[in-house]
Amino acid sequence: MSKLPIEDKESMKWIRLMRHVNRAFNGLGNRVLFIADREGDFYEHVAERREENVGLLVRGKNLGHHIVFGDQRCQVKDLPNLLPIQGCYISHIAKFSA
Cα(27)–Cα(91) distance, rounded to whole angstroms? Predict the structure, then answer.
């Protein structure tokens, strides 16, 4: 079974969108948070280069995978309890009706 290159997969849409966001917000000084659902939880997307002002938040689908963090072996789902809080932000999202 041959693996398709990422460029030939539907998942490439996430990388194309990230590249577009990088170009659109490069040098503007605004902070941008790129939010992806579980479809966006794949290595090539997470590893894609982002401008300094572009963050990435992905709803994970592989939370049970084991990783090594520092000198500990843990699951991805354990990371929030191991990392220090970096800040807090409350966002109000307006409800739009069609």
Answer: 24
Q: 10 Å Cβ neighbour count for 36?
A: 18
pLDDT per residue rounded down to tens, the chain (98 residues): 558 888 999 999 999 999 999 999 988 888 888 899 989 888 899 889 999 899 998 888 888 888 888 888 888 888 888 888 888 888 888 887 76
- Model confidence, pTM: 0.66
3-class secondary-structure state, position 43: helix
DSSP state of 21: H
H or E stretch including 80? Answer: helix 79-82
